[in-house]
TrEMBL record:
The lineage of its organism: Bacteria, Bacillati, Actinomycetota, Actinomycetes, Pseudonocardiales. It comes from Saccharopolyspora hirsuta. Residues 23-108 form the ChrR-like cupin domain. This is Cupin. It comes from the Bacteria. Transmembrane segments: none annotated.
Length: 115
């Protein structure tokens, strides 16, 4: 199976839901997902003051591309803050996070499997 086919639609029609980890300050708007592989395209939102430290450092078994649409957050392991207009491309197994934000952040993410 693959992500479903969608023609243009208002992204605002998709509700934000709490991400795995159950922190109500960290939510996602899933735009398309493959239920078999778990890969997805989403908008991720950290409200001001959100901190993913309880979820620890993340490593995925899929590729992840992230573009920061607005705001900023800090990778607590790296001690670096990333801001709107910045982009990351992470191969499977690349450690990242945990994250903290004072002002809040919104990202656009695409996740997929390699060959």
């Amino acid at each position: 199976m693959a992500k479903p086919e969608h023609e243009f639609f208002p992204v605002s029609d998709v509700e934000f839901t709490v991400c795995p980890g159950d922190d109500p300050k960290i939510t996602e708007r899933i735009l398309a997902a493959d239920p078999e592989t778990g890969v997805a395209t989403r908008i991720l939102r950290y409200e001001p003051g959100a901190d993913s430290t309880p979820m620890g450092v993340q490593e995925h078994d899929f590729w992840e591309e992230v573009y920061i649409l607005e705001g900023s957050f800090t990778d607590l392991t790296l001690g670096e803050t990333f801001t709107a207009g910045m982009y990351a491309c992470r191969p499977p197994g690349m450690p990242h996070g945990p994250w903290r934000t004072d002002e809040g952040v919104v990202t656009f993410e695409v996740r997929y499997r390699g060959k």
